[in-house]
Structures are given as C-alpha cells and as structure tokens.
Amino acid sequence: MESAGKESATAQWYRHFGTVDAPGNSDCYAEWSVGIAGDPELLRRIDEWPYNKRQPLLMLAAARFLGARISPYPDFRAFLDEHWQDLSRIVLTRATQTNEAGRCATLLPSLAQIASAGGRPLALIEVGASAGLALFPDHYGYAYDAGPVVTRLAPAGAAAGSYPVLGCAVTGPVPLPAELPQVVWRAGIDLNPLNVRNPDDVAWLEALIWPEQDFRRERLRRAIAIAQTDPPLLVAGDLNEQLPALAARAPSDATLVVYHSAVMAYLDAAARDRFRATMARLAIERGCHWLSNEGHTVIIQADGSSVVPEMDESRLRGRFLLLHNGKPAAIAGPHGQSLEWL
Prior knowledge:
It contains eleven helices and eleven strands. It is an alpha/beta fold.
C-alpha cells in the first residue's frame, strides 16, 4: 500500500470518507472505504469513471442497489469483482440524490414562522428536490426534544403510524409552532427527478441510506407512502433555468417559500451568483422567502466568502447552516436530527 503522503486523490477521498464521515454513522461503510483506499487495483478501476462519479457514497450505494450486504471488506471486494460491469453502469447513470424527509424537522419552525407572519398558507418550491419527499412537511409528525420537554406535533386527522415521526434534538430559542402550517401548493426542481411510483427509483432511494441506519430506511418508506398518494409536481432541469417559470405557477394568494438542502455544493460560483440574483428578484416581485440549508460551502457570498461572514466555519463541524433570507437562523444536523437556534 502507498504511504498516506503519496496516496492518489481518489484514495484520499475514500480514506477521508472511511475515517471521518462514516465512523459513527456506518461501521460497514467505514471499513469498506478504508479498504478501497488501500486497494490500488480497485482505485485504478474507479479512476476510469468521470471525476464526479468517483465519490464514495455513489459507488457504495450502487453496490447496495445491486444487493451488497453488510460484510467484511474481502467479501465486499469479491462482490465488486462479480458485479463490476453492472456497478459501473449504475454509477454512470445515477447520482447521489438522497431524499431525507428528516430535514423537514429543521425546516418546519421557519416555515411555520413564515406562515404565521404572513397570515396565509404556504406554496413550497424545493430546488434539488430528488423525489420531493421534503415537500410534505405538513404531512409528517415531529418530536422536538429539548431535554426535559418533548414537543410533539402530528398532521391533523392522520392515523398514528401512517406517517413518519421526525425526531430532532433542539437547543436555543427554537420557535416551535403549536400546529403544522397549511401548505396549498408544492413543487420541486431536479436535474433528474425521481418518481415515487417507480420501483427502481424507490430502490435507489433506499440504497442511498447507509447500511445500519434502519430508522432512516423506515422513515423513508413512510414518507414515500405519503408522496405516492399524491405525488408532487416535479420539473426536470437546471434550477436556475426552471425556477422563475415554476415560481410563476405558484398561487398568488399563498406565501411562496423556496428552499434547498445540500444542493449548493453541486453548483459552481457563477451558478450560485445567478441563483442568489433570482432569489433577490423573487423576494421583490413575489414577497418570496428563501431558506438555505447547506453544509460548510453554504452559498458563496457576495464578498467571496464561502460561509456568511459572521459564522465561524469550524462551528458547523459537519452540520448545516440554515439561512432565512440570507441571515443565519440555526445550525442543523444534516439529516434533520438536531437544530441549534442562533
């Protein structure tokens, strides 16, 4: 094995994923990724893919999609040898479109605040919507844990067990609502929208969940069942090209909210500039609100910084920064598991 100092970029990528990102989330992915990082022959094959297709989560999800089970690395390596042609096809045609309904728990307080302040129901647009599961915040249950007190919210009239309950640990003065806001229109944009009524797309969403996280898998299944009864409007295309026309379709008697989670890292600086300009225009023309829920890259600011100037990047520590109309509101767990109000 090469020394760490001489490792290829791909080897470093997998080693970082296996030693920093995966531990505590998936022992299996940690072992597999470290194994791949020290496997020159496998790295050579991965490097034949385009750069943006080499990411660990995409490759590992493709293996899971094909049936790879939790196993020691040598068994996983044998599975890859046996299925490499199919795995390459999936990697080249799919993308990491994790659709985490749990993020609704960190968005809900802001959505409820916006609805309350405007005195009107909400019209929602999610950019980077995947299958649109984060477009149903009014159909999920919530358990906000502030330590001694747990605040529970449930969709009106829904039978217990028919919806996922999103747990979220809260700190600080989180403005928890007394009831769920009313949503009268919902739509999303994605380069490749996933269809909740397509079994292959559903299987891909499940494959993107890390192996040991059964609670997220169960949550996903319940969210998909809700979306399948009334699938959201999903538009295929570039978010900058599609957003103005889609926003124009939102009902004028509702408060429009545009939001995104873990999307901006996939845009270059010019595309982020264009998106910020579009949001500024929608704010003026439609009174639109903007919720940005992003990792350490957040959204490139006008001054060129990658996080808002008043936020120390090290404070995020793998979490997301939630901005409301460009102003920091909270620090959120990437899967919606925590919310620290600022």
